């Protein structure tokens, strides 16, 4: 099965002035599409692998696949999965998940403390990668970062929120000002 680029559900300019339309267009239609194309090329070699990329990522170590293809799937399948979640969390309508907010406040003490921890994790990540709020194997919320396109799914964690801190996500508008991009992300995040 060939996987396709997920539709955003909003225009590239819908997150202005926080996320500019040109970055959104390139990030979605070029970067995300490239991850999908390369993931599909890997999966074409293994027609017996019919599960979703999420399910395949969860059991990547046990897949019958050449080591080089496993590594490539980790990168390109991760790029597909991570970006698909990233787009879903952004919404100009600003919907809020009150249950998640209550759980975050219970675990981290307040939304401000959670935002500070998450923002520092994203800002402190060296190089390309992602900041995450994920549910670990004990069903507890954790904040951490991963390099490249690594997914919490590789650790048997359920991703909840993610922030792409690869420079392609923000460089046209924010250049090297990652802190400003992180602050802008909070303005367009729909879940909390």
Features:
single chain, 192 residues, mainly alpha, Helix Hairpins, minor pseudopilin epsh fold, 2 domains, 3-stranded antiparallel sheet, 7 helices, 48% helix
Report on this structure.
The chain has 192 residues and is mostly helical. It has two domains: 69 residues, Orthogonal Bundle (Helix Hairpins), CATH 1.10.287; 91 residues, Iron/manganese superoxide dismutase, C-terminal domain (minor pseudopilin epsh fold, 3-Layer(bab) Sandwich), CATH 3.55.40.20. Helices cover 48% and strands 11% of the residues. It has a three-stranded antiparallel beta sheet with strand order 2-1-3. Helix 1 packs antiparallel against helix 3. The longest helix is centred in the first third of the chain and has 24 residues. The chain starts with 20 loop residues before the first helix and ends with a helix. The model has no long low-confidence stretch (mean pLDDT 95).
Kindly report the average pLDDT value.
95
Based on the coordinates given, report the CATH architecture of the largest domain: 3-Layer(bab) Sandwich
**Total of helices:** 7
Number of domains: 2
DSSP strand (E) fraction?
A: 5-15%
Tell me, briefly, the overall form.
globular
Sketch the topology as an H/E string, one letter per element.
HHHHHEEEHH
What separation lies between the terminal Cα atoms?
34 Å
CATH topology of the largest domain: minor pseudopilin epsh fold
* Helicity range: 40-55%
Radius of gyration: 17 Å
Structural class: mainly alpha
The beta-strand count equals 3
Q: Main β-sheet: number of strands, strand sense, barrel status?
A: 3 strands, antiparallel
Unreliable parts: none
Strand order of the main beta sheet, please?
Answer: 2-1-3
């Amino acid at each position: 099965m060939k996987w396709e680029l997920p539709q955003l559900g909003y225009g590239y300019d819908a997150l202005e002035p926080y996320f500019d339309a040109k970055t959104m267009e390139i990030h979605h239609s070029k970067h995300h599409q490239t991850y999908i194309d390369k993931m599909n090329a890997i999966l074409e070699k293994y027609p017996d692998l019919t599960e979703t990329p999420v399910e395949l990522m969860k059991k990547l170590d046990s897949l019958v696949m050449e080591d080089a293809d496993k590594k490539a799937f980790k990168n390109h399948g991760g790029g597909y999965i991570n970006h698909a979640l990233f787009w879903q969390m952004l919404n100009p309508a600003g919907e809020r998940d009150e249950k998640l907010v209550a759980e975050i406040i219970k675990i981290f003490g307040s939304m401000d403390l959670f935002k500070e921890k998450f923002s520092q994790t994203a800002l402190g990540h060296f190089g390309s990668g992602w900041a995450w709020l994920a549910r670990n194997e004990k069903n507890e919320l954790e904040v951490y970062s991963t390099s490249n396109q690594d997914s919490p799914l590789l650790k048997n964690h359920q991703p909840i929120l993610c922030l792409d801190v690869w420079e392609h996500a923000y460089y046209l508008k924010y250049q090297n000002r990652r802190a400003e991009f992180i602050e802008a992300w909070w303005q367009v995040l729909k879940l909390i």
